[in-house]
Amino acid sequence: MPYTVTDRVPTTQEHRVLAEAVGWGEAFWWESMPASLAGSTCGVVVHDDDGLIGMGRVVGDGAFYFYIEDVAVHPDHRRRGVGRAIVDALVRQVRDHAPGHRFIGLFATPEAEVLYRSLGWEAKEMLGMWQVLRD
């Protein structure tokens, strides 16, 4: 089945549908998602004839620091090159957006580690740390 890759940030509804499909429904504070998506540097959505099947986006300062976020592929479409197409499109968009040297980072789920390593990503000597601040 052919896929259509479109350079744009997913809508809030698209993001939620895919997040829930991959088990990330509780990972986001949905009230903040419209503003979060609007603050994205770039993004990509992937469709087939039946609808949305993948997404990803980039956040950062728009000049040097960029982070790939929310790469998700519907479980029915995994292992068909969709994740690779999403990451390739996001990296291309970063290259187009900020020529020269730039830092691109990401956090990978254990399931996605093989994909990212196959695309040339590697774990470095740094320790990734994070927390969610809740009020």
Name a few traits of the molecule:
Aminopeptidase, 4 helices, 24% strand, 5-stranded mixed beta sheet, alpha+beta, 135 residues
3D architecture notes:
By secondary structure, the protein is of the alpha+beta class. The chain has a single domain (4-118), classed as 3-Layer(aba) Sandwich (Aminopeptidase). It is 28% helix and 24% strand. The protein has four helices and five strands, in the order βααβββαβα. The protein has helices spanning 12-21, 33-38, 82-97, 113-118, and strands spanning 4-6, 42-48, 51-60, 65-73, 103-106. A five-stranded mixed β-sheet has the order 1-2-3-4-5, with helices on both faces. It is globular and about 40 Å long. The chain starts with a strand and ends in a 17-residue tail after the last helix. The mean pLDDT is 91.
CATH architecture tag: 3-Layer(aba) Sandwich
> How would you sum up the major sheet?
5 strands, mixed
Q: What's the order of the H and E elements?
A: EHHEEEHEH
Instruction: Return the CATH topology.
Output: Aminopeptidase
Mean pLDDT: 91
Q: What separation lies between the terminal Cα atoms? A: 45 Å
How many individual domains? Answer: 1
**Binned strand content:** 15-25%
Backbone shape: globular
- Uncertain segments are none
What oligomeric arrangement do these chains adopt? single chain
Beta strands, count: 5
- Assign the CATH class: Alpha Beta
Give the class from helix and strand content and strand pairing.
Answer: alpha+beta
